[in-house]
Amino acid sequence: AQTVTQSQPEMSVQEAETVTLSCTYDTSESDYYLFWYKQPPSRQMILVIRQEAYKQQNATENRFSVNFQKAAKSFSLKISDSQLGDAAMYFCAYERRNDMRFGAGTRLTVKP
Amino acid sequence: EPEVTQTPSHQVTQMGQEVILRCVPISNHLYFYWYRQILGQKVEFLVSFYNNEISEKSEIFDDQFSVERPDGSNFTLKIRSTKLEDSAMYFCASSETLVGQPQHFGDGTRLSIL
User: Which of A52, A75, A77, B35 is the most exposed place for a label (fewest CB within 10 A)?
Assistant: First the structure.
């Protein structure tokens, strides 16, 4: 079974600074998708960024970017110029054949 | 922007009772999903559904659970004979046809079993 590990239960960043959230996963497959989802206190999970495993280029979405290391099975999320609204739980997710597995989440606090 | 809607937002049920959680996916989406999140734990995949059939299911999704698309808009999760450990947030999600398309999540239903 595929597992997703987020080793940082909590992270803190100063407003306007940069923070990196870690994620590793375990799979024997070569074709899959990786996601970062954000879950603010309002509960709804919102897609932050998506990466296809067959693409070597790291995905970027405005202030959010990933460092995808396929051989190392690592998929970290970098948030640049952190804003107060970035405070949330962040979940890393692995998907193959519509079966999505989530990490335990990292709670990000943004300090003003 | 279209949203996935879930009702109710909070459901309280006696242990042993049956409960039905309802979801209205985004109208042009064809894949539907249920997840649960026990308080303080990770989000867990339960089941995916496509073309009126279960596409994938996890080891959690046993005979106690069933899903149905009773009409053109609703997608339901039924839990029979609920147990205390079924208390959790249940999230519905939907996506377009292609694998790897982002899933759009509803706000969740908090299920409390007494």
Answer: A52
Tokens 């003003």 identify what position? A112
CB contact under 8 A, A98 and B55: yes
What's the average pLDDT block by block, 10 residues per block, for chain B (114 residues)? 90 96 93 90 89 90 94 92 96 82 89 95
Structural domain count, chain A:
1
Contacts of B55 in chain A (CB under 8 A): 97-98
Domain that holds residue B82: 5-113
Number of compact structural domains in chain B: 1
Residues A52 and A46: their CA atoms lie apart, in Å, by 18
Per-residue pLDDT of chain A (112 residues; tens, 9 = 90+): 568 999 999 999 999 999 999 999 999 988 899 999 998 876 778 899 999 999 889 999 999 999 999 999 999 999 999 999 999 999 999 988 777 889 999 999 999 9
In this structure, what token pair is assigned to residue B44?
């867990």
Range of the domain at A24: 3-111
Which of B50, B102, B106 is facing A35, going by the closest CB pair?
Answer: B102
